[in-house]
Amino acid sequence: MKESTRQQLVLLSEKKYREFSAALVPGEEKMLGVRLPKLREMARKLAKDNWKEELATEDFYFEEIMLRGMVISYATMRMEPEEAMVYITDFIPRVNNWSVCDSVFMKMDILKKNRDLTWDFIQPYLRSRDEFRVRVALVIMMAHLLRCDSNGKKMSRFRNITMSDLENIDAEKEKAGKYLSPIFEKINRSFTEGYYAHMAAAWLVAEAFCCFPALTNRFLNESKLDDVTYNKALQKIIESKIPEDEVKCYIRGLKK
Q: Is the Cβ–Cβ distance between 247 and 166 less than 8 Å?
């Protein structure tokens, strides 16, 4: 980012927040301690100005990389998806922690404008051996592809899940969008790329369970997930407030 932008970030930094955030992002030493709402506010303003000049400079701090991704997210909303992918492709290699990945890509709404293009775009990243490129692809699938119904509209999670909901496979098939089965096919493997790939895959499965409990239950019973990812997915489902206690007890019984 430009030196003037860097100085703004320095002014917004908080020592106590940096200490708190650094503990959540192991290995990140170049952190200022700027809160996410402040970064998003800056990004929105920069995206309305000469944002390409900002991207032409290099980043030093953790927050600059985060800000770059947010600027891209806001600026590309005015583009055609094909053009936006150029900037997103350039950004992905800069992602080296879960915080930047999730904070940027969970909110990158351009990826919803042409979901078929987005699906094709993430395929090489799903096959990567780099854990954060895999995580980027998994987070994109979860945030922008998973929760689509058969009409392409965003679905709500269940308010509560009962044991009887685990039997409604045919009803869920009619409701599910075109990406659910391909998503299950793509993640039905061992995740050996690293901890943050394990965690993202587990998070995706747990989110799928809250939207499609019957189909996700079938996936869990037939899956080829590695034990770490599989058991972490069960844990995340159990930690959710949506499944009823009887469902949680059943899920505990699936542990490997």
A: yes
